[in-house]
Specification:
Elements: E1 2-6, H1 8-13, E2 18-20, H2 32-43, E3 54-65, E4 71-79, H3 81-97, H4 103-113, E5 114-115, E6 127-128, E7 130-131, H5 137-145, H6 163-174, H7 180-190, E8 197-202, H8 209-216, H9 225-241, H10 244-259, E9 268-271, E10 274-277, H11 278-290, H12 296-301, H13 303-312, H14 316-342, E11 348-349, H15 354-365, H16 371-379, E12 382-386, E13 391-394, H17 399-417, H18 425-435, H19 452-463, H20 470-482, E14 494-495, E15 499-502, H21 520-527, E16 533-536, H22 542-545, H23 549-554, E17 556-558, E18 561-563, H24 573-583, H25 591-608, H26 611-619
Parallel strand pairs: 2-4, 2-7, 3-8
Antiparallel strand pairs: 1-8, 3-4, 5-6, 9-10, 11-14, 12-13, 15-16, 17-18
């Protein structure tokens, strides 16, 4: 890598001759505020020198040639696409605004928009310096060439074309009332000798574009790993096939058709300690699935390098399969992870839908690093897939996947109850992908008095006595509730829409007398046990919530004002057990009742998430 101060002329008029926007790079997106800011800086250039940013160019050993076979050098514009494209369009707008072309104006075409592939080349043989990505190329080349390599005039209807045309039209309109001398001064400011850029030249073997970009341009738009990965994959496919139309069709169908039409792919989301876009996280997941032998550090920190190195070893069919798989994984991710999470309150869950319940748990606990495993297992159950309509259906009832999901559910919930660290989840996911779901407990001892499972059970028991995280208590009670429901019930599926309620309220002092054998600290501790918690269809009235046990059960009926109690706010069997107990004559709820119910729930929890049993089911 070589970095140096440079003028625009240094960048445009020196080698490499052709500055190519990577073929599959994103389109031109600058808007009027960007054009106006650039023009303002240019107009006040003499008064206030400004830094115009970094331009990162990656050398290519490949040569390009014109129709006559004359070769010329090229490099890829890794960063600076928006800026250089805008400057080219501004330059052409100045050229087209001058009716009588003087020598300075003609030099624009000869030196700053085009280069000559050989000394005696006529203008119709000129080559454009900046070669746009495929999405903007036709529009850009029409504007740059027209009136220079031919005698035509640019014709654009109002509001027609894309952002390239809008940019050119903006500058043409702005320059309508400018004097020729003013326009000449703008050109002098643009192409003078002032070093207003940092030019970074990368060797062809450098694949650390992202790190370089981030360190130079932290205030700018982040160069996403997905952009580099996309370019490298399709550049490799172009090299293998030499068929531009086929590769473009492949990109339109399996990449742009999926990722360009949905804004959410670019939205940022927190994945563990790292913020990634949904697309970057998807590609991280694909790399984990495809290349389990790769180090997790490389996949986390340099995914673009991993994809590039792996793609080099693939033949044409293997590379197309990889690109196709990325599209399928994307459809699965969108439907079963993203959209599921967005509409989670609309879904219902049954006793045997373990994969669906696992997705709920991971969403509510914000545990994301096992998603590569989830995507892999869902991929293996695909029933139908239509890339054009972006529809995919996976078999959520597939038995082996559901058995494995139940084991992972147990692993995650048990550890979350006693607040175990999640720092090793990415590594554990890679082990599971490589060797199977049994790796979740590969480091556990199951024999003897000091077995790890017995020790974990003790931690669970203590944690249930001080379960202050409401999301954990809700998930535990919901999952245990589901064990009581089956196809014989009128309602075998439940939505996760319940409210967590403390039976003995946190504000107990007004209506819950303290027994002589219990201190305030002891009572406050009991209130936080899971045995004191139930799920209701909706919250109690604020007044009832802190009332005595009888009022909380039966509600309040004072005149025309009716406030419903537990009896009217539940359809759940676990809550009904407590109501039945009350109606059978047990009108007291105290520390002893809480302790007894905590013990009962603990035993249910061990039976439901029985690790040894679940391991036996998945390993045979």
């Amino acid at each position: 890598m070589v970095a140096k101060e440079a003028s625009l002329k240094d960048i445009i008029e020196s080698e490499p001759h052709r500055l190519e926007i990577p073929f599959f790079q994103r389109r031109y997106v600058w808007k009027e505020e960007n054009w106006e800011e650039l023009l303002c800086a240019l107009e006040h250039f003499k008064e206030e020198k400004v830094f115009w940013g970094a331009v990162i160019i990656k050398h290519s050993s490949e040569k390009e040639s014109d129709a006559m076979g004359h070769e010329f050098s090229k490099g890829y514009v890794i960063d600076g696409q928006q800026r250089l494209t805008t400057i080219a369009l501004l330059t052409k707008a100045i050229y087209d605004s001058i009716e009588e072309k003087e020598d300075w104006c003609k030099k624009i075409a000869d030196n700053d928009l085009f280069f000559t592939p050989y000394a005696s080349a006529s203008r119709d043989k000129y080559q454009i310096i900046i070669k746009q990505s495929r999405t903007d190329r036709e529009e850009f080349e029409y504007i740059i060439k027209t009136g220079i390599v031919n005698q035509e005039q640019i014709e654009m209807e109002k509001d027609s074309g894309g952002q390239i045309s809008r940019c050119y039209a903006y500058f043409r309109k702005t320059f309508q009332k400018r004097k020729k001398e003013e326009l000449a001064q703008l050109i002098d400011n643009l192409y003078g000798d002032e070093k207003v850029f940092v030019q970074i030249m990368l060797d062809e073997k450098d694949v650390n574009e992202q790190a370089i970009f981030d360190s130079i341009n932290r205030a700018g738009q982040k160069l996403a790993s997905s952009d580099i990965i996309k370019n490298n994959l399709f550049k490799r496919m172009m090299y293998l096939t030499k068929d531009e139309k086929r590769v473009c069709d492949l990109c339109d169908r399996y990449w742009d058709g999926i990722f360009w039409n949905d804004q959410f792919w670019d939205d940022k989301r927190q994945f563990g300690n790292i913020e990634k876009s949904h697309l970057d996280f998807l590609l991280y997941s694909v790399a984990c699935i495809k290349w389990t032998e790769e180090t997790l550090k490389n996949i986390h920190e340099e995914p673009e390098r991993v994809f590039e190195q792996k793609a080099v070893d693939l033949d044409e069919n293997e590379l197309q399969e990889l690109i196709t798989d990325i599209a399928k994984y994307a459809l699965i991710y969108k439907k079963y992870i993203y959209e599921f999470g967005e509409k989670i309150e609309d879904f219902t869950f049954s006793k045997e839908e373990h994969i669906k319940r696992l997705l709920l748990i991971m969403n509510k606990f914000k545990i994301q690093m096992f998603y590569p495993y989830i995507l892999k297992r869902l991929y293996e159950t695909i029933r139908s897939c239509n890339i054009e309509t972006k529809e995919i259906v996976c078999d959520l009832s597939e038995r082996s996947m559901n058995r494995e999901a139940k084991l992972l559910e147990a692993y995650l919930v048990r550890r979350r109850i006693y607040s175990a660290s999640t720092s090793g989840y990415s590594k554990k996911c890679m082990e599971v992908l490589e060797k199977g779901i049994g790796q979740l407990y590969s480091d556990f001892k199951f024999e003897g008095e000091n077995s790890d499972i017995l020790e974990e059970n003790k931690q669970l028991k203590e944690a249930l006595k001080k379960i202050r995280q409401q999301d954990v208590a809700k998930i535990v009670l919901f999952c245990l509730e589901l064990t009581r429901w089956d196809e014989k019930d009128d309602m075998g599926q439940l939505a996760f829409q319940y409210q967590l309620e403390h039976i003995m309220p946190k504000k107990w002092k007004d209506h819950w007398p303290l027994p002589s054998n219990c201190s305030e600290d002891e009572r406050n501790a009991k209130i936080e046990e899971i045995g004191n918690m139930i799920l209701l269809t909706q919250k109690l009235n604020g007044h009832l919530r802190n009332s005595e046990y009888k009022i909380k059960m039966e509600g309040s009926h004072e005149g025309k004002s009716v406030k419903e109690g537990y009896k009217d706010r539940t359809q759940l069997k676990m809550t009904k057990d407590i109501i039945d107990q009350y109606e059978q004559g047990d009108k007291i709820w105290d520390e002893e009742h809480i302790e007894r119910r905590t013990e009962e729930l603990y035993k249910e929890l061990l039976a439901h998430w029985d690790i040894e049993k679940l391991l036996g089911e998945v390993t045979g």
